[in-house]
Specification:
With about 130 residues, this protein is an alpha+beta fold. A seven-stranded antiparallel β-sheet has the order 2-1-7-6-5-4-3, with helices on both faces. It is globular. The two termini are about 15 Å apart. Keywords: Actin-binding, Cytoplasm, Cytoskeleton. Pfam families: Profilin.
Length: about 130
Amino acid sequence: MSWQTYVDEHLMCEIDGQHLSAAAILGHDGSIWAQSDNFPQVKPEEIAGIMKDFDEPGSLAPTGLYLGNTKYMVIQGEPGAVIRGKKGSGGVTVKKTNMSLIVGVYDEPMTPGQCNMIVERLGDYLNELGY
Protein backbone atom coordinates (compact mmCIF):
# COMPACT_ATOMS: atom_id res chain seq x y z
CA MET A 1 0.00 0.00 0.00
CA SER A 2 1.36 3.44 -0.87
CA TRP A 3 1.79 6.16 1.76
CA GLN A 4 -0.74 8.25 -0.14
CA THR A 5 -3.29 5.44 0.22
CA TYR A 6 -2.78 5.50 4.01
CA VAL A 7 -3.56 9.23 3.99
CA ASP A 8 -6.52 8.99 1.61
CA GLU A 9 -8.16 5.85 3.01
CA HIS A 10 -7.17 5.83 6.68
CA LEU A 11 -6.50 9.40 7.80
CA MET A 12 -9.09 11.12 5.61
CA CYS A 13 -11.69 8.41 6.22
CA GLU A 14 -15.18 9.20 7.47
CA ILE A 15 -15.85 8.65 11.15
CA ASP A 16 -19.39 9.25 12.44
CA GLY A 17 -20.01 11.38 9.35
CA GLN A 18 -16.95 13.57 9.95
CA HIS A 19 -13.56 13.89 8.24
CA LEU A 20 -10.22 15.43 9.19
CA SER A 21 -9.59 18.83 7.57
CA ALA A 22 -6.06 17.80 6.56
CA ALA A 23 -3.59 15.01 7.22
CA ALA A 24 -0.07 13.91 6.39
CA ILE A 25 2.60 11.33 7.05
CA LEU A 26 6.04 12.92 7.47
CA GLY A 27 9.50 11.55 8.11
CA HIS A 28 11.21 12.54 11.36
CA ASP A 29 13.30 14.92 9.22
CA GLY A 30 10.16 16.69 8.01
CA SER A 31 10.13 15.07 4.57
CA ILE A 32 6.58 14.62 3.24
CA TRP A 33 5.78 10.94 2.64
CA ALA A 34 2.16 11.69 1.73
CA GLN A 35 -0.40 14.41 2.42
CA SER A 36 -3.95 15.49 1.78
CA ASP A 37 -4.48 18.21 -0.81
CA ASN A 38 -5.03 20.94 1.76
CA PHE A 39 -2.28 20.02 4.26
CA PRO A 40 -0.42 23.21 5.24
CA GLN A 41 3.12 23.87 4.00
CA VAL A 42 5.21 22.99 7.06
CA LYS A 43 8.56 24.56 7.85
CA PRO A 44 11.65 22.61 8.95
CA GLU A 45 11.76 24.52 12.24
CA GLU A 46 8.14 23.53 12.98
CA ILE A 47 9.02 19.83 12.58
CA ALA A 48 12.21 20.34 14.61
CA GLY A 49 10.11 21.82 17.44
CA ILE A 50 7.70 18.88 17.34
CA MET A 51 10.56 16.37 17.38
CA LYS A 52 12.18 18.22 20.31
CA ASP A 53 8.93 17.98 22.27
CA PHE A 54 8.90 14.21 21.76
CA ASP A 55 12.43 14.08 23.23
CA GLU A 56 11.77 16.74 25.89
CA PRO A 57 8.02 16.57 26.70
CA GLY A 58 6.62 19.98 27.56
CA SER A 59 9.14 21.99 25.52
CA LEU A 60 6.38 23.26 23.17
CA ALA A 61 4.01 24.28 25.96
CA PRO A 62 5.43 27.80 26.46
CA THR A 63 5.55 28.71 22.75
CA GLY A 64 2.77 26.57 21.27
CA LEU A 65 2.89 24.06 18.45
CA TYR A 66 3.25 25.60 15.00
CA LEU A 67 2.11 23.83 11.85
CA GLY A 68 2.07 25.75 8.58
CA ASN A 69 2.29 29.10 10.42
CA THR A 70 -0.79 28.21 12.52
CA LYS A 71 -0.23 28.27 16.27
CA TYR A 72 -1.93 25.63 18.42
CA MET A 73 -2.04 25.66 22.21
CA VAL A 74 -0.47 22.40 23.42
CA ILE A 75 -2.86 20.31 25.49
CA GLN A 76 -2.53 16.91 27.15
CA GLY A 77 -0.83 14.21 25.13
CA GLU A 78 1.29 11.15 25.80
CA PRO A 79 4.90 12.15 26.53
CA GLY A 80 7.21 10.87 23.80
CA ALA A 81 4.32 9.46 21.73
CA VAL A 82 1.47 11.93 21.06
CA ILE A 83 1.23 15.73 21.00
CA ARG A 84 -2.18 17.38 20.86
CA GLY A 85 -2.91 20.99 20.06
CA LYS A 86 -6.02 23.17 20.12
CA LYS A 87 -6.95 26.33 18.23
CA GLY A 88 -10.47 27.67 18.53
CA SER A 89 -12.96 24.95 17.57
CA GLY A 90 -10.28 22.82 15.90
CA GLY A 91 -6.94 21.29 16.61
CA VAL A 92 -4.17 18.91 15.67
CA THR A 93 -2.93 15.48 16.77
CA VAL A 94 0.64 14.32 16.06
CA LYS A 95 1.59 10.68 16.68
CA LYS A 96 5.25 9.68 16.54
CA THR A 97 6.07 6.23 15.16
CA ASN A 98 9.45 4.55 14.76
CA MET A 99 10.15 6.39 11.49
CA SER A 100 7.32 8.86 10.91
CA LEU A 101 4.97 11.51 12.24
CA ILE A 102 1.25 11.01 11.62
CA VAL A 103 -0.51 14.39 11.60
CA GLY A 104 -4.24 15.04 11.62
CA VAL A 105 -5.87 18.49 11.62
CA TYR A 106 -9.56 18.88 12.46
CA ASP A 107 -12.30 21.49 12.79
CA GLU A 108 -15.77 21.26 14.32
CA PRO A 109 -18.00 19.36 14.11
CA MET A 110 -15.27 16.68 14.36
CA THR A 111 -14.27 16.20 18.00
CA PRO A 112 -10.74 16.00 19.40
CA GLY A 113 -11.42 12.39 20.40
CA GLN A 114 -12.35 11.42 16.84
CA CYS A 115 -9.17 13.01 15.48
CA ASN A 116 -7.07 11.30 18.16
CA MET A 117 -8.61 7.92 17.34
CA ILE A 118 -7.93 8.22 13.59
CA VAL A 119 -4.33 9.45 13.97
CA GLU A 120 -3.30 7.22 16.85
CA ARG A 121 -4.84 4.06 15.39
CA LEU A 122 -2.81 4.45 12.17
CA GLY A 123 0.28 5.35 14.20
CA ASP A 124 -0.04 2.23 16.34
CA TYR A 125 -0.49 0.09 13.20
CA LEU A 126 2.59 1.59 11.52
CA ASN A 127 4.60 1.07 14.72
CA GLU A 128 3.66 -2.61 14.64
CA LEU A 129 4.99 -2.79 11.06
CA GLY A 130 8.25 -1.13 12.11
CA TYR A 131 7.54 2.25 10.51
